[in-house]
Amino acid sequence: MSSRIEILNAGGYRSDGRTQYELRSMTIILGDSAKSLSENLDDSFSNLYPNAADGSATVMHGLTEVSVRVFGPREAQIRREAIHDRAKINVQVVMLPFSGGTANRRRGRGDKRLLELAAAIESTFESVIQTGLYPRSQIDIVVEIHQQDGGVLHTAINGVTLALTDAGVAMYDQVVAVSAGLHSTAVLLDLSHYEENDMPFLTVAVMPRSKKVTLLNMESRLHVTRFEHVFKVGCEAAEIIRTEMGNAIMARTHALASSAMTGELGQTQRGGGNLIDESGMAYEMEE
Question: What does pTM read for this prediction?
């Protein structure tokens, strides 16, 4: 069923004021500043992971907000499930009650939609993480959806990439994802909720250096004659997101290095001095 909102007007502008190929504003928070909002919720998975996360990230594409926490690599909690020559990856997706969405209802652990998202994320990163370096261990990834306005899957994938990087998990390459849809003959990027409901679209995740595709997800029909063009535009848009993610990682690295240097200088002073805590770094993409 089509929405009543005009997706693309005669002037080439979308319902939220963006142009055809324009991405939504992107905000990235890396490290300890990316706090979990579900720690006090009874139906969350936080009670399964009482220890502090090894890596964390919060990513916002427009109004869609997702936070990711990574635990591990660490010893497998259930020994019989350990794999002798590589690490086991566990992904769990939590949709917070206030996140909104079309159904506007609480989704439990066994919800089909959440299980599908977890399976897609797990399959995306199984070939990217160098699991062979961590035999008989496990890597737990917890994805929390705080707010959704379209593009939940690609926002979550970008968040997992950043959280794994923050945790220091070895990967062959970064994974960058984006959604692309077809309205009449026009390709639109980074779709909002209303746009996803009004047109066929796909979500593509690529490794920028090797140009390999780790995920191609389609939940609607797209004519084969249009598929190649939509796919190509999506891959080109991923390069832009990769640049912004790289800038955020670089800013986080500089903050950690500066904090370490400040701590070393402070300890040499008489009385110890005060240490500057810059463990969290926020980076916002300019529109």
Answer: 0.85
Q: What is the pLDDT of residue 101?
A: 57
Q: How many CB atoms lie within 10 A of CB 123?
A: 14
Residue 49 CA, chain-centre distance (Å), reads 20
3-state class (DSSP) for residue 177: strand
Nearest-angstrom CA–CA distance, 249 and 240: 15
Six-digit token string for 21: 């190929």
Q: What share of the chain is helix, strand, coil (3-state, %, to 5)?
A: 35, 30, 40
Query: If DSSP codes are grouped into helix, strand and coil, which group holds residue 147?
Result: strand
CB 154 within 8 Å of CB 191: no
- Report whether 213 contacts 206 (CB < 8 A): yes
Q: Which residue do the tokens 């070895």 mark?
A: 170
Which ranges of the chain have pLDDT less than 70? Answer: 1-4, 32-51, 101-109, 264-287
Largest CA distance in the chain: 72
Nearest to 157 by CA among 134, 179, 181: 179
Q: DSSP alpha helices (H): ranges in the chain? A: 112-126, 152-167, 193-198, 224-268
For 124-171, what is each residue's pLDDT tens digit? 999 999 999 999 999 999 999 999 999 999 999 999 999 999 999 999
**Strand pairing report for 137-147 and 88-95:** parallel
Q: Which two tokens stand for residue 37?
A: 């909002």
